[in-house]
Amino acid sequence: MKEEIIDIRIKEKAKKILEFADGNLCPRCMARNFFHDIPSSDNLERGEIIFKNLDLELTNESDGNCFVCNDIFQSIDNGLVEQISNKLEDLNIEFTNFLVGCRVSKDITRRELEIHELICSDQENIKKEINREIGKALSLRMNKEVEFENPNLVILVDYSKNIEIPILEIQINPLFIEGRYKKIIRGIPQTKWPCRACKGRGCEQCNYTGKMYQESVEELISPLVLKESGGSESKFHGAGREDIDVKMLGEGRPFVLEIKEPLQRNLDLIKLETKINQYAAGKVEVKSLKMVDKSRRQEIKTSSTNTYKVYHATVDLDKEITLEDLEPLKSIKIIEQRTPRRVVHRRADIIRKREIRDIKTKLLKNNVLDRIIECQGGLYIKELISGDEERTHPSISSLLKTPAKCVQLDVLDVKLD
After folding, report:
1. Active site residue 243
2. How many domains does the chain have?
3. Residue 128, Cβ neighbours under 10 Å: how many?
């Protein structure tokens, strides 16, 4: 223990606390009140310095438990760490780091607040110290690191009902895998599409599958990842999505696959990529799989307007045109597009402005166009072509002064700016 003489004002406050607690106070619950006043790396040492300066060798000479924590810190030394470690081994969870959280009773919180109000101290919260002490002990025992930002596990110790036998809860945080997918056939959605008639419950219309479509990009990718990780379920997050009848080609569309409650995290992503591509052969391909943090999920989900995309569209016109008639198309730059009628039931009915970066047009026949369109993400290409009853302006239809329809569409590239 450090030989340190403390300030007289600290002594007076410490005496006041001891008197209020009838002498029943452990070193840690004393020390938290002087967390910023006495240099030390540990509250136990800090508390012993205070008691030594008060000429008290023992923290409480009576038979009572600590007034604040009711001797909660003794439970950490009396088998709790071993109990947690054994539970994690029984669950067979693979992890490299963790975080500890705790709950305490309202009585403990109230008594801590009473002392705070008594001396107007800038306390360290008791739960913070409990979490730190359990974390330090577990880290040494399991040779794992404490991680505050993106822990693999959160170990919750609930002391609110019983200090001697706390309830243990293990929260396994999700695993996030980023990659790109190509959809090389038409007719499948990006994610599972519940049946409109039964809302996913299963009915005669969907052949009791609960789905509008029997396969999706998500369902061709996620099963093998769930199997390898031992996860409970998955969620698919794409950087936008293409229509069911549209192919996703080129380098593919960025996505993040979220795996909930994974038992295994150390996955061989190269082998997993190969297995997925074999399983989904002829339909979907994945590439560039890598582990990412939770923050990447939100970045991908909200990236639509921060991307630019390249489309290949085949357009049928109601009348024949000439090369000269195509000149107005070169002037398209900014599109004002009201939410298309076909999606307005599930999207906000607003007007969006999107930029056209480049358009290349070939006249295949006098009434058939071949177009390469490079544009800001979030632009609806089918409506850019048809005009969607003037909800999109300008449109190919309005500029050529004839009804136009997209008969085939492919996404050739999705690039994140």
Report:
1. yes
2. 4
3. 13
Q: Are residues 15 and 96 in the same domain?
A: no
Neighbour-count burial of 296, counting CB atoms closer than 10 A to its CB (0-12 exposed, 13-18 middle, 19+ buried):
middle
Report the CATH number that the domain containing residue 213 is assigned in CATH: 3.30.70.2510
Catalytic residue among 243, 316, 325, 413: 243
User: pLDDT tens digits for 47-56?
Assistant: 999 998 887 6
Taking a C-beta distance cutoff of 8 angstroms, is the pair 133, 76 a contact? yes
Instruction: Give bridge partners of residue 313 from the DSSP assignment.
Output: 371, 409
Residues of the chain with pLDDT under 70: 1-3, 56-63, 417
Give the CATH number, domain containing residue 101.
3.30.2130.30
Q: How far apart are CA 111 and CA 92, in angstroms?
A: 39
Q: Report residue 101: phi and psi, to 5°.
A: -130, 165
Reading phi first (left if > 0) and then psi (alpha if -120 to 50, else beta), residue 173 is in beta
Instruction: Convert the pLDDT of each residue in 265-307 to its tens digit.
Output: 999 999 999 999 999 999 999 999 999 999 999 999 887 777 8
Closest CA to 102 of 161, 28, 15, 42: 161
| pLDDT, tens digit, 9 for 90 and up, residues 77-99 | 788 999 999 999 999 999 999 99
| Domain end call among 49, 67, 85 | 67
DSSP letters spanning 12-63? HHHHHHHHHTTT---HHHHHGGGTTTS--S-HHHHHHHHHHHTT-SSS--SS
Q: Which domain holds residue 101?
A: 72-172
Which among 48, 67, 86 is the end of a domain?
Answer: 67
- What confidence tens digit (pLDDT) does each residue in 209-236 have? 888 888 999 999 999 999 999 999 999 9
d(CA 234, CA 276): 15
